[in-house]
Task: inverse folding
């Protein structure tokens, strides 16, 4: 069974058709990419999948469960994590604390037990802290653990955001333009990282602009244009697809 | 444990003040310190709501009044006419009622302060839930106006309902016995004990909130403040957390109301006034919104000065000015780093210019 | 209820309603140009009435009112220039707290100048007991002054926004401040102007209502809450909506006298405010589409 199934998704904003009849599925263990020119509806698609806003019609199945009508925090609790194109750090919190928020769904302390510091809260806190440190180490930013996250360099913030998403122990990770704003070396680094994440057993769905990154790491690619799916195939086949080439290189 | 360490010097200060006041025969200062401590309890709760959950409330005096008025009403209004009611008989048999005599020798039967306190706090919590569910969906101006409206309604209710004493409020509220012979009251002889009760309650509240801030829940709340969308995507149920914080702060306000009412032996409608709510917001803002220690410090200092009558007839004007000045020049509070930077820069620049002139 | 009594209530409702509408339009003017809800809006009304009452000792009534309106406009400009203009991208919370602070300070200034006593301007025509008959109901001629002044302000404001170039610039500023700046409009001055306009309207309302409702240093908060209720009810930013909603609230309040105890009169507006915020924050006449762009 596919991990994620998107079926006949439509989204309209007033008269604008942002997403029109998009269907595809993501198999477990895959790295799947959604590409397309600016305004193709890629981020809209992500926002619908992660529950930020509802689709006009259509359905999204995650592990066989309908996600439409669920709020983002409920989708997160089911095991789907995401990052943002324009990084959304929790300002005023350290990098470590940011990642610790990511452990939210994996822990259970409530208002009263937190206030009274029950013994099991102690143990949970220690576990959360250790796990968050491990993730920061994995992403090579452990030395910035106690720096205010919003004062870190752009690339480092990306890493913190990724660590934060991984802290959720997701089954599926949505990456919204993970290479945006990075130079070629950093982009290549992100590529290796995504492969490493896949090897941890996490399925990855990414939206990306950077063709080289997508071609290198994806197992399958969906191409969107003006909200419609125009192709879905292996990277090699996509590279040969005349319609995709037309979109990316323009018509003469 | 690190976060709790600053409590030790604070405790030393509290004890030091008592010793100095007892030694110099200035015990009357302790009265205002006691009252300031109770107000500060409310302010701590509001600080978590405003600074950490990012929700403004211009109606917290309402929750204070709910706590104080319900506790006062239940412990002063005689139940003698309802003596034959089944519920009253049941409460009487469980020892939850107090009987005695009024000054005029009439028979008196009232609800015990312990039960009254529980009812008062529970009422505040329930009302907070019912108000919070719709109100917390609002943002910015709308939230401010809605909570202001709630505060005004409570003010109107206590002013108009006979049970709450209308414009006179409720007086002759009995003492609230706690344990081991301690009781919350305004008696001369119990002043030192009450000073410690108030500070005990305040410090307990502070510890609970410090624990909360440095926990999964606290991180979730701060996350909401940092980026609500991202917090949501991390699995933080933002609506629920906001509501729980709202209820928590309402409970803190109600506890403050109950204790202060028993300490003062009464409560009047001015406690529910809009100005009170605004004043609490002002103090939280001065302390730096997301800064429990700042809120505590400012809560004690400003309330103490105000209760001492230092500001005279300019009391409200002082708090109004504080609000404006802080929001104009130090929106993160006077303890914030950026403000201290600006301040030092301002003064060093002034010196340089002076030096240049000379 | 007799038909005379009915008309009596109705006219009372319209009187108060038109004042609420003017306060609400004051909110709207500032909200439209800045996105700020000015919590000190009610204080403009208070200043208008109080200053006119003081000036009346030295000059005839029309002059006192005129001068009072001008002085209040200057106060409005002063407030904007001192407390709002130079803030760089202030947060909503900050603006709320600042305008609340201004409201408190204005009240405190008023109480230290004029004391806590209740004052009023004399009736413009006749006195407390003179009345005219409309459909059998007897009302004070002052009521006509209030309604006429409100209507006049509403119409003049409409003409100002539609036909004058400054009015058009203010509307441009309202619909997109950045774009207006790029077109060479001095948006900062437009914001000051919006405070001046809204202060002037409030002051005039404060003068015409003073003989009936009296003036007191702390009348502002109640009026602000009611004005805000009306502004929300009519859809924030819409002047036409404010008029309809204002009259509606005024009439509801007037007719509720027979049902709701006097002490809870003020609570009616607040209850309506809370209900409308909970179920329809875009207002009775606002569209859902447009309100999706606003931050509730």
Result:
């Amino acid at each position: 069974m596919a991990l994620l199934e998107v079926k006949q998704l439509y989204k309209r904003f007033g008269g604008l058709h942002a997403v029109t009849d998009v269907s595809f599925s993501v198999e477990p263990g895959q790295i799947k990419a959604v590409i397309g020119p600016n305004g193709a509806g890629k981020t809209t698609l992500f926002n619908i999948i992660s529950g930020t806003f509802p689709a006009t019609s259509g359905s999204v199945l995650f592990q066989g469960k309908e996600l439409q009508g669920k709020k983002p925090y409920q989708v997160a609790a089911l095991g789907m994590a995401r990052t943002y194109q324009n990084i959304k750090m929790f300002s005023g919190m350290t990098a470590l604390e940011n990642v610790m928020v990511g452990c939210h769904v994996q822990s259970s302390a409530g208002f009263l037990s937190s206030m009274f510091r029950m013994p099991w809260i102690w143990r949970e806190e220690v576990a959360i802290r250790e796990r968050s440190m491990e993730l920061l180490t994995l992403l090579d930013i452990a030395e910035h653990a106690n720096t205010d996250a919003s004062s870190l360099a752009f690339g480092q913030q990306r890493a913190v955001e990724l660590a934060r998403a991984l802290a959720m122990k997701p089954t599926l990770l949505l990456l919204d333009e993970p290479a945006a704003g990075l130079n070629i070396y950093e982009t290549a680094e992100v590529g290796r990282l995504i492969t490493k994440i896949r090897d941890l057993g996490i399925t990855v769905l990414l939206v990306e602009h950077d063709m080289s990154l997508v071609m290198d790491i994806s197992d399958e690619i969906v191409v969107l244009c003006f909200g419609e799916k125009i192709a879905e195939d292996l990277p090699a086949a996509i590279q040969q697809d005349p319609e995709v080439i037309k979109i990316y290189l323009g018509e003469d | 444990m690190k976060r709790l360490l600053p409590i030790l010097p604070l405790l030393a200060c509290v004890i030091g003040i008592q010793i100095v006041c007892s030694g110099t025969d200035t015990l009357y200062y302790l009265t205002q310190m006691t009252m300031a401590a109770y107000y500060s309890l409310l302010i701590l709760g509001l600080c978590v709501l405003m600074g950490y959950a990012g929700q403004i409330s211009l109606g917290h005096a309402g929750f204070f009044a709910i706590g104080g008025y319900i506790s006062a009403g239940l412990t002063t209004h005689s139940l003698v006419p309802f003596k034959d009611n089944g519920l009253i008989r049941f409460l009487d048999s469980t020892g939850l009622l107090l009987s005695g005599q009024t000054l005029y020798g009439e028979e008196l039967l009232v609800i015990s302060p312990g039960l009254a306190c529980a009812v008062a706090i529970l009422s505040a919590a329930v009302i907070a839930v019912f108000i919070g569910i719709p109100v917390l969906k609002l943002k910015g101006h709308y939230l401010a106006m809605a909570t202001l409206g709630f505060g005004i309604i409570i003010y109107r209710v206590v002013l108009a309902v006979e049970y709450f004493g209308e414009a006179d409020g409720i007086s002759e509220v009995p003492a609230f016995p706690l344990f081991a012979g301690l009781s919350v009251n305004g008696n001369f002889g119990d002043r030192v004990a009450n000073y410690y009760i108030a500070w005990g309650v305040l410090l307990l509240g502070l510890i609970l909130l410090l624990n909360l801030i440095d926990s999964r829940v606290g991180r979730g709340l701060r996350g909401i403040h940092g980026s609500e969308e991202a917090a949501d995507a991390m699995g933080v149920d933002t609506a629920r957390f906001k509501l729980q914080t709202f209820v928590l702060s309402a409970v803190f306000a109600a506890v403050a109301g109950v204790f202060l009412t028993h300490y003062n032996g009464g409560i009047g409608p001015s406690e529910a006034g809009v100005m009170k709510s605004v004043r609490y917001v002002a103090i939280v803002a001065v302390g730096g919104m997301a800064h429990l220690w700042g809120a505590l410090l400012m809560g004690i200092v400003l309330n103490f000065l105000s209760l001492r009558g230092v500001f005279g007839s300019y009391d409200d004007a002082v708090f109004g000015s504080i609000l404006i000045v802080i929001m104009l020049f130090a929106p993160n509070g006077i303890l914030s780093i950026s403000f201290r930077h600006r301040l030092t820069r301002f003064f060093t620049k002034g010196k340089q210019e002076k030096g240049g002139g000379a | 209820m007799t038909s005379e009594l009915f008309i009596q209530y109705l006219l009372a409702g319209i009187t108060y309603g038109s004042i609420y509408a003017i306060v609400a339009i004051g909110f709207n003017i500032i909200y439209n140009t800045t996105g700020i809800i000015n919590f000190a809006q009610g204080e403009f009304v208070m200043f208008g009435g109080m200053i006119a009452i003081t000036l009346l000792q030295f000059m005839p009534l029309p002059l006192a009112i005129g001068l009072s309106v001008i002085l209040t406009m200057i106060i409005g400009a002063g407030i904007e220039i001192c407390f709002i203009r130079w803030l760089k991208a202030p947060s909503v919370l900050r603006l709320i707290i600042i305008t609340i602070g201004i409201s408190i300070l204005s009240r405190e200034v008023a109480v230290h100048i004029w004391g806590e006593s209740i004052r009023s301007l004399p009736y413009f025509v006749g006195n407390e007991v003179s009345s005219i008959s409309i459909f059998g109901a007897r009302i004070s001629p002052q009521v006509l002054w209030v309604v006429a002044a409100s209507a006049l302000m509403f119409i003049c404001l409409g003409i100002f926004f539609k036909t004058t170039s400054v009015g058009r610039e203010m509307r441009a500023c309202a619909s997109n401040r950045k774009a207006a700046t790029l077109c060479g409009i001095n948006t900062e001055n437009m914001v000051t102007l919006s405070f001046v306009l809204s202060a002037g309207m409030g002051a005039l309302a404060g003068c015409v209502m003073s003989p009936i409702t009296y003036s007191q240093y702390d009348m502002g908060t109640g009026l602000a809450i009611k004005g805000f209720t009306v502004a929300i009810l009519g859809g924030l930013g819409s002047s036409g909506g404010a008029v309809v909603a204002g009259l509606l609230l005024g009439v509801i309040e007037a007719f509720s006298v027979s049902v709701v105890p006097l002490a809870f009169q003020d609570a009616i507006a607040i209850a309506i405010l809370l209900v409308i915020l909970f179920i329809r924050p875009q207002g009775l006449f606002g569209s859902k589409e447009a309100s999706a762009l606003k931050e509730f």
